[in-house]
Amino acid sequence: MDEILRQLVPLVIGSVPTMILFLVLVIAYKFLLHGPLLKILAERRARTEGAVERAHAAIAAADAKAQEYEAKLRAARAEIFRARENRIKAWNAERESALATARQAARDRVNAAKSSLEAQAATSRQEFERGADALVADILKAVLSGGSLPGNPVAAEESH
């Protein structure tokens, strides 16, 4: 075992400069590469997370704008629908008014025509009654006098 220790001592002493160089390289790596690399990675992660957060914020803002536009669009459609309904109601009212006016004018013409017909019928009745009275008078004259009736061909032939 002594022999092993004797052989090991010069190896350990020969490896001391390598160990020191390794420690110096580890420390240099830690300060020169690892620290700045961690800083850059942390900064990159922060930027990435910030970009993701900004993207989420932009998406939320876009959704809010889209909902606002949809609400405005629904309001505009409702307003157009109300205006259309009001126009249709106004047109229907105008049509009903025109129909009522036309119906009233037709009733007035029918009543005027009825009145005119009744007046003509009354005039015709009176003329008929006068004509009938005159005819009756002529018939009575002819019968009582034994003469012929005017316009009666049979009586006119008998009298010749």
From TrEMBL:
<keyword id="KW-1133">Transmembrane helix</keyword>
<dbReference type="Pfam" id="PF00430">
    <property type="entry name" value="ATP-synt_B"/>
</dbReference>
<keyword id="KW-0813">Transport</keyword>
<dbReference type="GO" id="GO:0046961">
    <property type="term" value="F:proton-transporting ATPase activity, rotational mechanism"/>
</dbReference>
<dbReference type="GO" id="GO:0015986">
    <property type="term" value="P:proton motive force-driven ATP synthesis"/>
</dbReference>
<keyword id="KW-0138">CF(0)</keyword>
<comment type="function">
    <text>Component of the F(0) channel, it forms part of the peripheral stalk, linking F(1) to F(0). The b'-subunit is a diverged and duplicated form of b found in plants and photosynthetic bacteria.</text>
</comment>
<keyword id="KW-0375">Hydrogen ion transport</keyword>
<dbReference type="InterPro" id="IPR050059">
    <property type="entry name" value="ATP_synthase_B_chain"/>
</dbReference>
<keyword id="KW-0406">Ion transport</keyword>
<keyword id="KW-0472">Membrane</keyword>
<comment type="function">
    <text>F(1)F(0) ATP synthase produces ATP from ADP in the presence of a proton or sodium gradient. F-type ATPases consist of two structural domains, F(1) containing the extramembraneous catalytic core and F(0) containing the membrane proton channel, linked together by a central stalk and a peripheral stalk. During catalysis, ATP synthesis in the catalytic domain of F(1) is coupled via a rotary mechanism of the central stalk subunits to proton translocation.</text>
</comment>
<protein>
    <submittedName>
        <fullName>ATP synthase F0 sector subunit b</fullName>
    </submittedName>
</protein>
<comment type="similarity">
    <text>Belongs to the ATPase B chain family.</text>
</comment>
<keyword id="KW-0175">Coiled coil</keyword>
<feature type="coiled-coil region">
    <location>
        <begin position="52"/>
        <end position="86"/>
    </location>
</feature>
<keyword id="KW-0812">Transmembrane</keyword>
<dbReference type="InterPro" id="IPR002146">
    <property type="entry name" value="ATP_synth_b/b'su_bac/chlpt"/>
</dbReference>
<keyword id="KW-0066">ATP synthesis</keyword>
<dbReference type="GO" id="GO:0012505">
    <property type="term" value="C:endomembrane system"/>
</dbReference>
<dbReference type="GO" id="GO:0045259">
    <property type="term" value="C:proton-transporting ATP synthase complex"/>
</dbReference>
<feature type="transmembrane region" description="Helical">
    <location>
        <begin position="12"/>
        <end position="32"/>
    </location>
</feature>
